[in-house]
Write a structure and sequence with these properties.
about 65% helix; Thiol Ester Dehydrase, Chain A; alpha+beta; 2 domains; elongated; about 625 residues; 7 strands; Amino acid/polyamine transporter I; about 10% strand; seven-stranded antiparallel β-sheet
Length: about 625
């Protein structure tokens, strides 16, 4: 028990350090500058609660799904499929934001190099920062990253202690609940920030690959995800509080008006680099350990984000691109596909463009307050709301996310508080409607059927309508359930298509048990009925494609005999651009497993039998049952 407690603490430390990226690191200074202590707390509390909430809920997800210590890993493998591009984009922007913030608000204000050498200097800084993240990520990996972060966490604690020792006192006497200089910030007010911060920070971790990988690994180690993220949330909150109070201490020293960027593109006043500028302007004799301690604090926070990003991307890309059967992807070297190095070069490019354009941290943050909100909310819904498992409406979600992004950005630049709030709330409203609308349709359909069935016994007209509707349904989808508890043309139980039959003499061999070859026939019959159910309009005379079997495998578990009820279950297990995999299970009269297996399907042209991508008709038919 003690070991598990220590393990939770180590993971909590790693969680906090990985989440101390550019957003948490420098925006705590800006929020204190703009709104004082209440701004700092408004930023820090939802941030910490978002971490804790992720750990609390993923613990529930892990327990609800079968698979033991691999349950969360198996769940994420299926859960992440429709979100793969968004998960990747979220990680890329997070890493670019972090490297940009460190370069823009630490190295740039120090003016170590000026003049014509400045662009080359910034390129070198960005390259070194990213290379350090790659080095540490390659060195530790997810199994040992908690140890590496434990060491770095100890160094971070020493840096914090050195900073506290250098300041007297850390908490300034004039730390105000509101802004110290009300006229210093010209932009949206606190209320306009409140809703986007609450929304973005509470749902943010659900699209972060680093946190999903940590949660999976914590569960594999039989450690409490909930406890680990409780520790992580507390440590993270204390780090934000420390950095914000340090900014308040700098403001209490006076001369704050000389700090920050007065010539921003939007005309607003930014002070992310305020602490760095203050330390840089101190006399050499009064600096002491303060510069080394504070700059090391910033460096460790960024390094632990970058190495976590490297490890998470390696895990994610290896699981998705490295194993893809796509022909174009297959032409590239596998090691290149699975490596985060190309992604890190993309991060470097984004960072350099942002530096040249003189952007600010907030321009990256707008994505997390608007664009990703809908996807993160839908991700949470798909974990806990059964009716939200329908295919992800990719085009609609992307369109709405883009609209929300533009609304939020326009509201920020024009100081329109209502547009800021609308940009953050619009994705939430749409996701709520998407989930509720599907649920309402399901409930109305079920209740309408129940009402008609009950009334059919009393009103002859309704009885006739009910019979007619049942007959139509039987010809279009599947036959009604007869008295012997199985439909003559199969039915769905969740994602599984189920068909039952009775084994007779012709299915048995000389000793009376069902001949082994018959099980393949049973599966084939069930598969054809499944196709007929989901694609009732398929016609061999007019079709442009044929469905062929690429491979078939079956494991025999038990025998069955004459007059046993054989139940075959089949479902869509996986698919890529070319091939679709079906999984089947066969059960006997007492619901004992008789066997199980998988088969792979391919699709060819009906004209020349040339290999095709999975036809759109098949996607449309199969997607609701994945």
């Amino acid at each position: 028990m003690n070991f598990r407690w220590i393990n939770s603490l180590l993971w909590g430390n790693s969680v906090a350090l990985a989440w101390m990226w550019g957003l948490g690191l420098f925006f705590s200074v800006q929020m204190t500058f703009m709104f004082g202590l209440r701004g700092l707390l408004l930023f820090a509390i939802p941030n910490a609660l978002g971490l804790m909430g992720f750990g609390f809920l993923t613990q529930i997800v892990a327990r609800r799904h079968a698979g033991g210590q691999e349950s969360l890993a198996l769940f994420f493998e299926k859960f992440s499929k429709p979100f793969r591009l968004i998960l990747y984009l979220y990680q890329v922007i997070a890493l670019a934001l972090t490297v940009f913030a460190l370069t823009r608000y630490l190295f740039d204000p120090l003016k170590l190099v000026t003049g014509s050498m400045m662009p080359l200097y910034l390129c070198m800084v960005v390259f070194v920062v990213l290379a350090a993240g790659c080095l540490f990520g390659e060195e530790f990996g997810i199994q040992r990253i908690k140890i590496g972060h434990g060491i770095l966490g100890g160094l971070l604690l020493a840096c914090v202690a050195a900073v506290l020792f250098s300041l007297n006192p850390l908490i300034p006497e004039n730390l105000q609940w509101g802004p110290v200089l009300p006229d210093a910030w010209k932009g949206p007010d606190l209320f306009a920030y409140a809703i986007p911060l609450l929304v973005g920070l509470l749902v943010g971790p659900w699209l972060d690959l680093q946190h999903w990988q940590r949660a999976v690994q914590i569960h594999r180690e039989n450690t409490s995800i909930r406890m680990s993220y409780m520790f992580g949330g507390v440590i993270f909150f204390l780090l934000l509080l420390f950095h914000g109070c340090l900014a308040a201490w700098v403001m209490s020293k006076g001369g704050v008006d000389s700090y920050g960027n007065k010539d921003s593109l939007d005309g607003f006043r930014y002070a992310h680099q305020m602490v760095v500028q203050y330390i840089d302007r101190l006399d050499a004799g009064s600096k002491g350990l303060l510069p080394v301690a504070y700059f090391s604090f910033l460096g460790i926070c960024v390094l632990t984000t970058l190495d976590s990003g490297y490890v998470a991307l390696k895990w994610f890309l290896g699981a998705n691109l490295g194993k893809s059967q796509n022909l174009l992807i297959g032409m590239l070297p596998k090691r290149l596909l699975e490596s985060p190095i190309p992604t890190f070069f993309l991060v470097m490019l984004i960072t350099l463009v942002a530096l040249v354009a003189k952007l600010e941290l907030e321009y990256f943050m707008v994505f997390y307050a608007s664009f990703f909100v809908g996807y993160a909310s839908l991700a949470i819904a798909r974990c806990f709301v059964p009716n939200s498992q329908q295919p992800l409406p990719q085009i609609r979600m992307f369109s709405l996310a883009s609209i929300s992004l533009v609304i939020f950005a326009f509201g920020y630049c024009t100081d329109a508080d209502s547009l800021l709030i609308l940009g953050s709330m619009l994705p939430l409203i749409y996701v709520a409607w998407l989930v509720f609308n599907t649920d309402l349709l399901r409930v109305v359909t079920e209740k309408a059927g129940e009402v008609l069935e009950a009334a059919a016994h009393e009103i002859p007209a309704i009885k006739t309508i009910t019979k007619t509707a049942s007959a139509i349904s039987a010809t279009q989808v599947s036959a009604p359930m007869p008295q012997d508890a199985h439909a003559i043309s199969g039915h769905f139980e969740g994602k599984w298509f189920v068909y039952s039959l009775i084994a007779t003499y012709q299915d048995t061999n000389s000793v009376g048990n069902v001949y082994f070859g018959m099980y393949g026939l049973f599966v084939g019959k069930t598969r054809e009925l499944f196709f007929n159910s989901v694609m009732p309009d398929f016609d061999l005379k007019t079709t442009k494609f044929y469905i062929l079997t690429r491979s078939f495998e079956h494991k025999f578990v038990r025998e069955s005999r004459e007059f046993d009820v054989i139940t075959v279950k089949i479902r869509v297990a996986d698919f890529n651009r070319k091939f679709c995999t079906l999984e089947h299970q066969i059960f006997g009269s007492d619901n004992e497993l008789l066997g199980k297996g998988r088969q792979s399907l391919l699709f060819v042209s009906s004209k020349d039998y040339g290999l095709l991508d999975i036809p759109s008709e098949v996607y449309t038919a199969f997607m609701p049952h994945i």
